[in-house]
Automatic annotation (TrEMBL):
Transmembrane segments: none annotated. The keyword Hydrolase applies. Residues 1-25 form the signal peptide. Residues 322-349 form a coiled coil. Its cofactor is Zn(2+). This is M48 family metalloprotease. Its EC number is 3.4.24.-. GO terms for molecular function: metallopeptidase activity. Residues 72-260 form the Peptidase M48 domain. It is an enzyme of class 3 (hydrolase). It comes from the Bacteria. Keywords: Coiled coil, Hydrolase, Metal-binding, Metalloprotease, Protease, Signal, Zinc.
Length: 495
């Protein structure tokens, strides 16, 4: 499997190596805050995070699955908004996403961007365990640990260093022989140095625990997940998991968390159906090669035999996804029916994953009118769902209701100005309607949102030359061109 960001790790490692020891020498976290704040404002921190995220999104390891992303985002934002203190000085929304990687790891980078390896998602046994990992990472962000580390670097090399920091956090070579060779001995040494300090870990635990508690999760999830990681390490290899390497787990830390958990009355948290469904999905997303699918199918069959409702639902859901992947629509439909039978219609209607799968199956079997109806009903249940909005627009397009699709998408792009998928969908609809200028303008917007400004400017040129370009379009094109050219210029200056 391709390592996350391997291209960036090697060339930048040397820069990082020169700078890091200085930062470590002063890694007394509480006293760092004030000077750090003067250098890297929360707005600058967010900007930095956004730039890194742009690169993450174009990496093949980034999991581009709208439903899985939305599940993580809903869970994460529920944690972030449980307490007004959590956000710290950051005013922006947090972004949660999955990375295709079988190792146990989660990481945060400046500005509230939090990634979870599919391997970690699979290792968690309850939603509270997953929430405890996210809470700990949110703690690192709200205490601005990485931002503080980065603030000690010189401003002009801030971006390459942030990128390297991410690469090292994410690639987490060590336990993987190929990765270790790739990064070289020096790389591995650096990686050890970027580990959060003990103080930072304790602080992230303390804040994470509070977040977990305020959001109504079972706080024992924190201890049970740590125990699970330690057991996994002892059983399978001598090397600690990447998570333990980047977030060193000391006995003092475990005792601290344990004491905190014991002081709280036990609070049960009912896991959502989608937690189990998303673990099934993560298994397939992690590796969709034929042998991996066969192994996954065997796991799903076992889950169906388990007798536990949620596991039975997850097993059938996983088999439905495999069937859909193999274009066996009849089998996918049967499996989806099984899931609904297991959990009941009411619970099925409340599951984003099941709503989305039903639409997907209808589209795959060319029941486009049914898909439109189903998607419209699903949107009424989940009005803010991005995944369902994309599916509804797609269903309208597939059923050739271009006028309706354009109307819906134009409203959506006003509400969600940063969504490149909507703009791409809009371009496709305009294309079907034969509206050339508008099509190129929507493509331009889509490219600009992924940071591909030269491609965006090319599209503007094509829009300007289109036969159906209006006077009004021209003025929009001119304004966008000025704006994007200025961004490109500033970018060149920075580098
Ligand atoms: Zn940590």
């Amino acid at each position: 499997m391709k390592r996350f960001f391997k291209r960036l790790v090697v060339p930048l490692a040397a820069v990082f190596c020169l700078q890091m020891p200085v930062a470590l020498a002063q890694s007394d976290i509480p006293s760092l805050g004030d000077t750090a704040r003067a250098e890297l404002s929360p707005a600058a921190e967010y900007q930095l995070g956004k730039e890194i995220m742009g690169q993450v999104r174009s990496d093949p390891a980034y999991v581009n699955d709208p439903v899985l992303t939305e599940y993580l985002s809903n869970l994460g934002n529920r944690l972030v908004s449980a307490d007004t203190q959590t956000r710290g000085e950051l005013t922006n929304d947090f972004t949660f996403f999955a990375v295709r990687d079988p190792t146990l790891n989660a990481f945060a980078f400046p500005g509230g961007f939090i990634g979870v390896h599919t391997g970690l998602l699979l290792a968690t046994q309850s939603e509270s365990e997953l929430a405890s990992v996210l809470s700990h990472e949110i703690g690192h962000v709200s205490q601005r640990h990485i931002a503080r580390m980065l603030s000690q670097q010189k401003q002009d090399i801030l971006i390459p260093i942030a990128t390297t920091a991410l690469a090292i956090l994410a690639a987490s070579a060590g336990g993987d022989a190929a990765g270790a060779v790739l990064m070289g001995g020096q790389g591995y040494a650096i990686q050890k140095q970027i580990n959060f300090t003990r103080d930072a870990e304790k602080e992230a635990d303390r804040v994470g625990f509070q977040i977990l508690k305020n959001a109504g999760f079972d706080t024992t999830g924190m201890t049970s997940f740590f125990q699970r990681m330690q057991t996994a390490t002892r059983t399978y290899s001598d090397a600690p998991s990447p998570y333990l390497r980047t977030h060193p787990l000391t006995s003092e830390r475990i005792a601290d968390i344990d004491a905190r958990v014991r002081r709280e009355p036990y609070r049960q948290h009912a896991d959502s159906l989608d937690f189990f469904l998303m673990r099934a999905k993560a298994r397939l997303v992690q590796d969709d090669s034929e042998p991996a699918l066969q192994t996954a199918a065997a796991v799903f069959e076992e889950q169906i035999k388990s007798g536990s409702k949620l596991y039975m639902a997850a097993g059938n859901y996983g088999l439905a996804l495999i069937a859909l992947h193999r274009k066996d629509i009849a089998e996918a439909k049967t499996r989806l029916q099984q899931v609904k039978k297991t959990v009941g219609e009411a619970a099925a209607r409340q599951s984003l994953a099941l709503n989305s799968l039903a639409i997907e199956i209808m589209l795959a079997s060319n029941q486009t009118a049914d898909a439109v109806r189903e998607a419209r009903a699903a949107i009424a249940r989940f009005p803010s769902s991005r995944a369902l909005a994309h599916q509804y627009a797609n269903a309208l397009y597939m059923s050739r209701q271009y006028g309706e699709a354009a109307k819906f998408l134009r409203k959506q792009v006003q509400m969600y100005r940063e969504d490149p998928v909507l703009q791409r969908q809009l371009a496709r609809v305009y294309d079907a309607q034969g509206k050339r200028a508008l099509m190129h303008m929507a493509m331009a917007e889509s490219y600009s949102l992924t940071g591909a400004y030269s491609a965006a400017l090319e599209q503007l040129d094509l829009a300007r030359k289109a036969k159906d370009v209006t006077f009004y379009d021209q003025s929009v094109i001119d304004a966008r061109e000025r704006e994007w050219k200025a961004i490109v210029r500033d970018d060149l200056k920075k580098r």
